[in-house]
Design a protein that fits this description.
35% of the residues lie in helices and 24% in strands. With 614 residues, it is α/β, with parallel strands linked by helices. The strands form five sheets. The protein has an eight-stranded antiparallel β-sheet, with helices on one face. A seven-stranded antiparallel β-sheet has the order 5-6-7-8-12-13-14. A hairpin with a 2-residue loop joins strand 13 and strand 14. Helix 7 packs antiparallel against helix 14, helix 9 runs parallel beside helix 13 and helix 9 packs antiparallel against helix 16. The radius of gyration is 25 Å and the shape is globular. The protein starts with a strand and ends in an 18-residue tail after the last helix. The structure holds 6-O-phosphono-alpha-D-glucopyranose. The site of 6-O-phosphono-alpha-D-glucopyranose has 16 residues, from helix 9.
Length: 614
């Protein structure tokens, strides 16, 4: 949610900033802007819309300067517009600031600064920081860095900040609380990013700023980090940036989303690599080994997550309850954190997040930790906030996910949850050995079966035509495929803007059936064996109200197939593993519908990939 990039060194900053902004655009694409330090002044260029629009606008401008900051915005305070775009300037135009996060007490600060004569150009919360820092800098006679630290003591909220000043044009001031920020260290040059994507092609040496850090970087003076409240200098902790440049490109696919859907066999395999060995009969997640006993003794498990990760968590509930026989509660992180939940010291909280930066999930983790619970993370982005604040955890190894609609992260999360449940179930003795062996040998086949499922791409593209003019859709699933129905509906609505609802199949009679007529596509997941007849009855109920069935069935099915307008057959697996296959056609369906409707698949309107504000 909002992307930050900055550079200071001996190169021209502009090309680095623009390239970085393009990489970070998945974090927000309402507007973009840059500020460059040029001969004792700052030049700031901003545009509503994409980074390409900004780049085009800048073509006729002076783009020189060896220190600069750039921002791509997901609007929170103030509509998407050029005026509300970052960077925001101090009233004398000599301090420029970009921000990711929310300044919660901005109304109060704005009032105070207005009383002191400051005039505001934008409706953003960020602009108060530019004036507040300017006010302190001018009136306290201190350095800009000190002014930033004093200002931030008066700020309530979350931020990652990069600040550029005309007075010290070879220097950047950075600060972090709540939102991510890392510094790439080159040869007398510094590359700053909200994540590693704008940095990786220049250096792999990075420092992840911690909450409360204020850093100053300059090619002449190097890097210093202090705490907002503490004058003492902190030793930077250098880490290696784990990221591949090729993973950040589309690799011949039309969209990142399609590329990422097709990467799932590899992503699932990578998430199992070194953790599942069927021949040696091993299921082991090294990252949680130390906490496994605690997990086995837990009275209950609470899973916290948002969005697609919440859906993966809901699949996890079925997995853990059936394999480990521990009660599981799946919570929306945003609800959990604000309702004074009961959390006990022997609770295990599993936090799931692709980005590892989702503000509500991070806050839920902090809350659980403060109550003494053990928190296990499942996340995709290495060294993200979640990875750093949890007691232990497992990475998903899906590789960078750029498309805003999550796909491979979901299947990788479900893979890790399956491995976790199997490892614990085996140790706890809650799963018969024969059953355990059956599951692991089927799990090993999943990457290959996803590959097979992807061959249905053209058939699904043809089915997508049926949805193009529709305004609504219902997705039905039972048991472990109910969360898949929710995920399928989410995919369709977020990228094609067709309203879609996921429901447990049997719940249809309690409301959604009223919506069914000849216009209503009903996508039914009908792969489960135990309740197959019940699902067939649900399908009949839809058909008798003239609804149209699009079914996902196990290869060889004839009963549901014969009742369906369109039928997608997926390879046979154990019911408990079906989400890893059944979600794939739903991702492809949403993708093709969105493309046919002319929607911007990788950057759906109003959304952002990493929701680092509440
Ligand atoms: C946003 C993204 C979703 C994602 C959700 C949770 O809404 O658009 O794709 O599922 O955030 O993100 P996380 O990074 O915590 O999994």
């Amino acid at each position: 949610m909002c992307g930050i990039v900055a550079y200071t060194g001996c190169k021209e900053a502009y090309p680095i900033l623009i390239k970085g902004l393009k990489r970070l655009e998945y974090r927000g694409y309402d507007s973009a802007g840059v500020s460059l330090a040029q001969n004792g002044t700052l030049s700031t260029y901003k545009q509503k819309g994409s980074v390409d629009q900004l780049d085009e606008f800048c073509m006729s401008k002076d783009r020189s300067g060896k220190t600069g900051i750039g921002h791509t915005r997901w609007a929170t305070h103030g509509e998407p517009s050029t005026t509300n775009a970052h960077p925001h300037l101090s009233s004398d135009g000599r301090i420029s600031i970009i921000h990711n996060g929310i300044i919660e007490n901005y109304v109060y600060l704005r009032e105070e600064l207005t009383k002191r004569g400051y005039q505001f150009q934008s409706e953003t919360d960020t602009e108060v920081l530019a004036h507040l820092i300017e006010d302190i800098y001018k009136n306290e006679g201190c350095s800009l860095e000190e002014a930033v630290r004093i200002a931030l003591k008066n700020v309530v909220g979350a931020y990652a900040l990069a600040i550029l000043s005309a007075d010290e044009p070879d220097q950047l001031i950075l600060a972090k609380k709540g939102s991510p920020l890392l510094i790439g260290i080159g040869n007398n040059e510094y590359f700053i990013g909200s994540d590693g994507s704008p940095i990786v092609e220049y250096t792999r040496k990075v420092v992840y700023l911690e909450d409360g850090d204020v850093a100053v970087v300059s090619p002449q003076k190097g890097l210093t980090i202090k705490n907002i409240d503490d004058e003492t200098t902190k030793r930077p902790y250098l880490q290696k940036l784990e990221l591949n440049l090729e993973q950040l490109e589309k690799g011949g696919f039309e969209h990142f989303m399609l590329k990422e859907i097709f990467e799932q066999p590899r992503a699932i395999k990578d998430s199992m690599r070194g953790r599942l060995n069927v021949k040696k009969d091993i299921v082991e997640l090294g990252g949680i080994r130390e906490y496994e006993q605690k997990m086995l003794n837990a009275r209950r498990i609470i899973i916290v997550a948002c969005g697609t990760s919440w859906h993966a968590g809901t699949v996890g509930e079925y997995l853990f309850e059936s394999i480990v026989r521990i009660p599981v509660e799946v919570e929306y992180a945003s609800e959990f954190r604000y309702r004074n939940p009961l959390i006990y010291e022997d609770d295990i909280v599993i936090a799931i997040s692709q980005s590892g930066e989702t503000a509500d999930t991070i806050a839920a983790v902090e809350l659980a930790k403060s109550k003494g619970a053990t928190v296990i993370g499942i996340c995709n982005v290495v060294s993200s906030t979640l990875a750093r604040i949890t007691h232990a955890g497992s990475y998903t190894h899906a590789g960078p996910e750029i498309g805003v609609a999550s796909t491979k992260a979901f299947t990788a999360q479900v893979t890790v949850l399956t491995l976790m449940a199997l490892s614990l179930g085996r140790k706890k003795g809650t799963i018969p050995l024969s059953e355990y062996h059956k599951i692991i040998s089927h799990l090993e086949l999943i990457p290959q079966q996803v590959e097979e499922t992807l061959k249905l791409n053209d058939d699904i593209k043809a089915i997508a035509k049926f949805f193009v003019e529709k305004r609504n859709a219902i997705y039905l699933g039972r048991g472990i495929n109910f969360p898949v129905a929710l995920e399928g509906a989410l995919k369709l609505k977020e990228i094609s803007y067709i309203h879609a609802e996921g429901y447990p199949s049997a719940e249809m009679k309690h409301g959604p059936i009223a919506l069914i007529d000849e216009e209503m596509p009903v996508v039914v997941l009908a792969t489960e064996q135990d309740t197959y007849e019940k699902t067939v009855s649900n399908i009949d109920e839809v058909i008798s109200r003239k609804g149209r069935i699009i079914s996902i069935v196990t290869k060889g099915d004839s009963v549901v197939k014969n009742k369906s307008t369109y039928c997608i057959e997926i390879p046979e697996t154990l019911e408990i593993l079906t989400p890893l296959l059944s979600c794939v056609p739903l991702q492809l369906l949403a993708y093709h519908v969105a493309v046919l409707r002319g929607c911007n698949v990788d950057k759906p309107r109003n959304l952002a990939k990493s929701v680092s504000v509440e």
